[in-house]
Design goal:
alpha/beta; 9-stranded mixed β-sheet; 3-stranded antiparallel β-sheet; 12 strands; binds iron/sulfur cluster
Length: 381
């Protein structure tokens, strides 16, 4: 069970951290003890092995920083108001924001506690562990709402729960006829791939729930890589096994200062994801989470990076840059500024070539005319 030792031998306490920092010849700040008391720490030995130098993009995601104690304007514990989207009087394991889909909260545990996490307020807090009854009530809620067609199983990390429990959850969800999609949101392929490669029982559970006909809900995995150094032979082997089961995998990335707020880093990341057969689908502007202010960039930084990627790499590998609106307003794609004047007045618009070939006017369809149609183009003299 070597994969279990990777978690067991990771760093969890201030003493572990102090010893490890001394080994790295890095400064030990006593205030880190407060940081860990406030926001749990777990860095497993695999993720530690990816660190190349002090404060690199891997270090920053995993190693606690005294900056987490700083307060910044607008940052709150629950900026997306997830608690407000728990149905009134309903199960605490359901977050129901959008009409046709819900999040099912099944675990507070993760293979690593990311320092920038949106759910910093609850991950790693044993008191918030959802019970089996809470989870089953969540599934009953989904079964009784026919407009829900998509469930994201999340946490924490669903791959940290026992295989038997995951099997029960997937089995119960598969019975719900109105579901099209069951998504598992997990960072395990990135931060603890050995779990997937070595835990045969886990793979058997997934295999059991692969759709057999169009009537069965499709099983997807949403994973989370943020830096090219997370793309390793081990993570590839894990992803390969999931793909061999026929599970489509998408990736979301969070834009993080000092980690990936740079076009070259982002290009290497999306190219690495392409080599693994993973579709990068979202680049998130970092949420306004208390304790993560030092990770936040200007909104424009993500726009700049996505503009740089536009026309410069495979379209399929370009994530959509989104801001998750505070207060649960939903994900909003940021306009990259390549089009102007497209509106409901039906007069077309101007698009700008992402590969430096200037602008062109694109007309809306116009009525049929006899002979060669002349299109309206205000740019033509
Ligand atoms: S794995 Fe996901 S839920 Fe867990 S700490 Fe990291 S970002 Fe948060």
């Amino acid at each position: 069970m070597a994969y279990r030792d990777i978690l067991k031998n990771g760093i969890r306490t201030f003493d572990d951290l102090e010893k490890w920092l001394i080994g790295q010849k890095a400064r030990v700040d006593r205030r880190l003890e407060q940081v860990i008391a406030k926001y749990p720490m777990r860095v497993n030995t695999y993720y530690l092995s990816l660190i190349e130098k002090v404060n690199d993009g891997i270090w920053k995601q995993a190693i606690p920083d005294v900056e987490e104690l700083e307060h910044y304007m607008d940052l709150t514990e629950d900026p997306l108001d997830e608690e407000g989207d728990i149905p009134l009087g309903g199960p605490r394991t359901i977050i129901h924001r959008y009409p046709d889909r819900v999040l099912l909260f099944v675990s507070i545990e993760c293979a690593m506690y990311c320092r920038f996490c949106t759910r910093k307020r609850k991950v790693g807090d044993d008191l918030k562990t959802p019970s089996k009854e809470d989870i089953m009530r969540g599934i009953e809620y989904i079964a009784s709402h026919e407009d829900i067609r998509d469930v994201l199983i999340s946490g924490g990390d669903p791959l940290l729960i026992a295989n038997k429990r995951l099997d029960e959850i997937l089995g119960a969800l598969r019975e719900i006829k109105h579901l099209d999609l069951i998504r598992i949101g997990t960072r395990v392929p990135c931060v603890w791939p050995q779990k997937i490669v070595e835990d045969q029982e886990f793979l058997e559970v997934l295999k059991k729930h692969i759709p057999r006909t169009l009537k069965d809900p499709q099983l997807f995995i949403n994973t989370h890589f943020n830096h090219p150094n997370e793309i390793t032979e081990q993570s590839y082997q894990a992803v390969k096994l999931l793909r061999q089961l026929g599970i489509p995998i998408g990736n979301q990335t969070v834009l993080l200062k000092g980690v990936n707020d740079d076009t070259d880093v982002m290009r290497d990341l999306v190219h690495g994801l392409g080599r693994m057969g993973i579709k990068p689908y979202y680049l998130y502007y970092a949420d306004f989470v208390e304790g993560t202010g030092h990770f936040r960039t200007e909104i424009n930084k993500g726009k700049e990076i996505c503009r740089d990627l536009c026309g410069a790499t495979t379209g399929f590998l370009r994530p959509v840059y989104v801001v998750d609106g505070q207060g649960g307003r939903g994900k909003v794609p940021v306009d990259l500024g390549y089009s102007e004047g497209i509106s409901e007045d039906k007069r077309g618009g101007i698009i700008t070539s992402p590969i430096g070939l200037g602008k062109v006017y694109v007309n809306d369809p116009i009525e049929k005319v006899e002979g060669k149609p002349l299109r309206h183009n205000p740019n033509r003299k």
